[in-house]
Amino acid sequence: MATRIIVKQTGGPEALESETFDPGQPGEGQVRLRQTAIGLNFIDTYYRSGLYPAPGGLPMCLGGEGAGVIEAVGPGVEDLQVGQRVAYGTVLGAYASERLAPAAQMVPIPDGVDDATAAAIMLKGMTAHYLLHTTYPLKSGETILFHAAVGGVGLIAVQWAKALGATVIGTVGSKEKAELALAHGVDHVILYKEEDVARRVIEITGGQKLPVVYDGVGKDTFMGSLDSLAVRGLLVSFGNASGAIENFNVGILNQKGSLYITRPALNAHTRTREELLWRAGDLFEAVANGTLKIQPPQTFKLADVAAAHRALESRATTGSTVLIP
Fold it and tell me: Which residues are in the Enoyl reductase (ER) domain (predicted)?
């Protein structure tokens, strides 16, 4: 029997429950995975708390990112085989020691990348990819603001933005995190608990402000992000780490300079296998050639998932965190 973590009723970390189950045999177009590492992401806490409705209702098994070894393949699966290491970034049900998953969402892990690293970077790395290459295709010479610069997405995105030729301003919550951000290529660090973000952006840019702000924090940073944008600038709101943005008056965008705002998500940017393999391929290549230096992820046992959620929500983590079955 396998083990998984489910949520029967939304709430705090205490809502996470362990149960044993039989994953069964893979059906048409499916594989059965023995999971070796599971990525922890803020979106997991949104489903657990009820901020996002559970797809398919409750109970649900959390997690959308993981890596493992294929133990069986179902009918119609021709490009994957038993014993192959694979990873994925957008398939719910990852908080489990074994699982069934759609073969079309599985990406082979290249030699030289360990399972924990693959599980730690798939969702976060492909998120950074679409943010910088699709949502706002970043050009060399541009200056950007990236909130939570040493978070899971942030540490990948700021390195990638530097490789694309951008000047990167990053917000962090402590001096220790500021040092980490600078070590990963951030040009200007703003301590958001001590400094006015928009004012510092104006100082750094000589009053020009920014063409784009990437904001995965949400409620706490929303107005400061808007105030950091130049006329016709774009706010990319891709997360709600501090809570959902409430009572937003769209007229504010007019008042602050004909601004644009978008709320993208990864699953809309990996809708075809070709697009999935493009983004994952670019990600693994950037790791292999040294463009992205990935810190070893912090680890928790799957059984200690509640503690992992508490650490993530209190912003006690940096970079990526994985659960080990």
Answer: 11-323
